[in-house]
Amino acid sequence: xxxxxxxxxxxxxxxxxxxxxxxxxxxxxxxxxxxxxxxxxxxxxxxxxxxxxxxxxxxxxxxxxxxxxxxxxxxxxxxxxxxxxxxxxxxxxxxxxxxxxxxxxxxxxxxxxxxxxxxxxxxxxxxxxxxxxxxxxxxxxxxxxxxxxxxxxxxxxxxxxxxxxxxxxxxxxxxxxxxxxxxxxxxxxxxxxxxxxxxxxxxxxxxxxxxxxxxxxxxxxxxxxxxxxxxxxxxxxxxxxxxxxxxxxxxxxxxxxxxxxxxx
Length: 264
Ligand SMILES: C[S@@+](CC[C@H](N)C(=O)[O-])C[C@H]1O[C@@H](n2cnc3c(N)ncnc32)[C@H](O)[C@@H]1O
Fold this sequence. Notes:
Elements: E1 6-9, E2 12-14, H1 23-36, H2 40-51, E3 60-64, H3 70-78, E4 86-91, H4 94-103, E5 109-113, E6 125-131, H5 139-152, E7 153-166, H6 170-186, H7 191-200, E8 208-209, H8 210-220, E9 224-231, E10 234-240, H9 245-263
Parallel strand pairs: 3-4, 3-6, 4-5, 6-7, 7-8
Antiparallel strand pairs: 1-2, 7-10, 9-10
Helix pairs in contact: 2-3
Bound molecules: S-adenosylmethionine.
Organism: Phocaeicola massiliensis B84634 = Timone 84634 = DSM 17679 = JCM 13223
Keywords: Methyltransferase, S-adenosyl-L-methionine, Transferase
Protein name: tRNA (Cmo5U34)-methyltransferase
């Protein structure tokens, strides 16, 4: 049975270790993701709500791994009254982008068919999102991408990402996995499909624990982070770029200078 193609959902097939977001997956992605990712809609809703704190007129927003454009279409609606907010979806799969372009037809939205790790520089960004996507990057690329995100954010800008995670302890790893498989079956996937999907993701989806994700963020410079959602082996994290110490010192100096002038 090894290396045999099998159904991972009623209309999606895959081979062990070869999960891909190809034409077939893209066509059925919006239904498949709701069957296989817990709290998918609640997470979208939470991210859209949090975005209010970071998006204003003229903001630039990136969605890394934008798939069928679900998040960007919700952001477009939410911020429609603001002026000139630009949304950039980065996505390697062309079939995904074709669906996303139909869902989000607005001159404010741009979808780039590109590998996230090939974006060498982000600049002056207010908000970067990456939902269920960094987990697909090999570990050695993940930190580089996070560093570029941190460098490209304006001070006060945020990075929000959601990932499948490993438990901190093997006891919980067992419980979370069993509950996750129950969740999938309660949503209509059968046992064979659940096993086939797990096989197809081998070596493709590489989760880190919550602590490992937080320490990667801290390694690249983020000092202000929190978890905004957690369901067993899934977590949503927000990290905000704070002004650097040098900038604070510079501001203090400027303020002191200003104060001196006022006193003179
Ligand atoms: C699970 S889906 C993301 C779901 C989407 N963010 C949402 O909330 O509906 C992962 C997406 O990331 C894309 N992707 C994976 N690795 C990528 C990479 N290195 N560069 C660009 N896109 C990537 C896949 O093609 C896929 O569409």
